[in-house]
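Form P-L/3: holo structure prediction, ligand NAP.
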Amino acid sequence: MKTIHIYLFGLGNVGSTFIKQVLESHHFFKVNKGINLKIVGIANSSRLLTDVDGINENWEKIFVSVSVDRDPNAFYEFAAINDEVRIAVDATASKELSLFYPELVQHGFHVVTANKIANTLSQTFYDDLRSLLKERELSFEYETNVGAGLPIVDTVRNLHESGEQLFVVNGVFSGSLGYIFNRFSQEDIPFSDIVLDALRNGYTEPDPREDLSGNDVARKLLVLAREAGLKLEFTDINIENLVTTELQVASLNQFMTNIKSLDKPLQLRKLQLKPDEVLRHLGRLDAVDKTLKVSLEVVKKESPAGQLRGSDGFFEIYSQSYAANPLVIKGAGAGREVTARGLLCDVIKISSTLKTRVYHL
Ligand SMILES: NC(=O)c1ccc[n+]([C@@H]2O[C@H](COP(=O)([O-])OP(=O)(O)OC[C@H]3O[C@@H](n4cnc5c(N)ncnc54)[C@H](OP(=O)(O)O)[C@@H]3O)[C@@H](O)[C@H]2O)c1
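OUTPUT (holo model):
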């Protein structure tokens, strides 16, 4: 039996669902895979809790009563007490934590992340992290960076690593913006009401401007572009920002108070549509021209993107072998359940390929 120690950062929508899924599937992994998954550390931005026996269903109450102030070294000191395989799971949107990954790797942690930031910082940070992981023989998995639980990153990685030339990846990259624009096209309600509803349902980022600015889709394009071997920076991406200039620099509170100012410009674009057209938020990675573009486009209702429903993501991959008929991946592209399950898939992927080993720090 392999025992895997999980250290989870972020206890919000995705993190708390991840805990639920690990606890529910614990017996299944033990019996079917010989893997004993234990969540031995959990943290939010200010507090942390460790338990060498692994947390249980009462974790929320226990976290409130016995968690301690967060000290960056506390996890490392706790982890160093035993020699189990350790996986850090990042279910935050924190840049600060992303900058910590090299340190986590230095301390013998594999890393699984839903957070796109580490993969979209400078190319130098990206390359250095991979060199360090290689040197320490540790894994870094991030399938949920693009399309939540859908297998996009792995597909592009496998095509690239098998020598396939990638041409274009395009589609609806954001389940949140998919949800927002599907509803906006069908319903006669203000744009901002739909955004607030999407936030309440956990579809948008904690700050919805991350979605509306196009930055979130841009990060996903950059993750895929780098997976396909392109050396590009975030600043190379052509991004259409749907947030008004004033609100781009406002505090989150100010943005929420003035969110109605987004309504008029988008309502005008909606009024210009022909009866057989809808608005869709699209991303396009052109691996031949080395260009990445994020924009709100008018598409035909009967086109694949035009027919999407709910928060579905939709990806078309054109490559050497898929030149005429693209490889299409479609399905729920956002939501806490599918994202948490994607994180768990990555944890199992790492756990399955490992032998329990001793770390020499
Ligand atoms: N929701 C989705 O459908 C979806 C889909 C794909 C990917 N993702 C990604 O999943 C991540 C989490 O999303 P979410 O919807 O779960 O967000 P969320 O509900 O806002 O939760 C974020 C959590 O992160 C914690 N946190 C912030 N900074 C931290 C730090 N430095 N160290 C430890 N914890 C920290 C927060 O703690 P405090 O409360 O103390 O601030 C909170 O518990 C994001 O990167 C998002 O892009 C989400």
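COMMENT: The two ends are 24 Å apart (CA to CA).
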